[in-house]
Structures are given as structure tokens and as C-alpha cells.
Design a protein that fits this description.
mainly beta; three-stranded antiparallel beta sheet; about 0% helix; globular
Length: about 60
């Protein structure tokens, strides 16, 4: 299996809390994926990821 390394900003118009457009960082190396800057409360946007006390959670909206 091939290995891909990616590191850089990820921007969403509706997927993160904090305003109409915010940036979070995604780092993927091998089988490790790190998302930093996730909101810590439910952004109430269906499908948006957020950190629920350290557990990555998908918002129901």
C-alpha cells in the first residue's frame, strides 16, 4: 500500500464554528490523522466535526 503525507490548512464555509469561514489544521502521515482547532462545542451544523471532551463527534445539526 502506498503512503501519502499531507499537512496544511483545511477551510470550510459551514463545517466549523467561529464564523462563516474558519480554518483548522489537518495532518496525515501514514495511518495517523491529526485535526487541530476543532470546536469544543456542537456547532449545530449537520455533519460538522467537533471535539466532545476529546471525542471526535459528528453534529446532527
Amino acid at each position: 500500500m502506498a503512503q501519502t503525507t499531507f499537512s496544511g490548512p483545511v477551510t470550510s464555509d459551514n463545517g466549523f464554528s467561529g464564523g462563516p469561514t474558519t480554518t483548522t489544521n489537518l495532518t496525515a502521515t501514514g495511518s495517523v490523522i491529526i485535526l487541530s482547532g476543532l470546536p469544543t462545542s456542537d456547532p449545530t451544523v449537520a455533519g460538522a466535526l467537533w471535539s466532545n471532551s476529546g471525542v471526535v463527534t459528528v453534529s446532527a445539526g
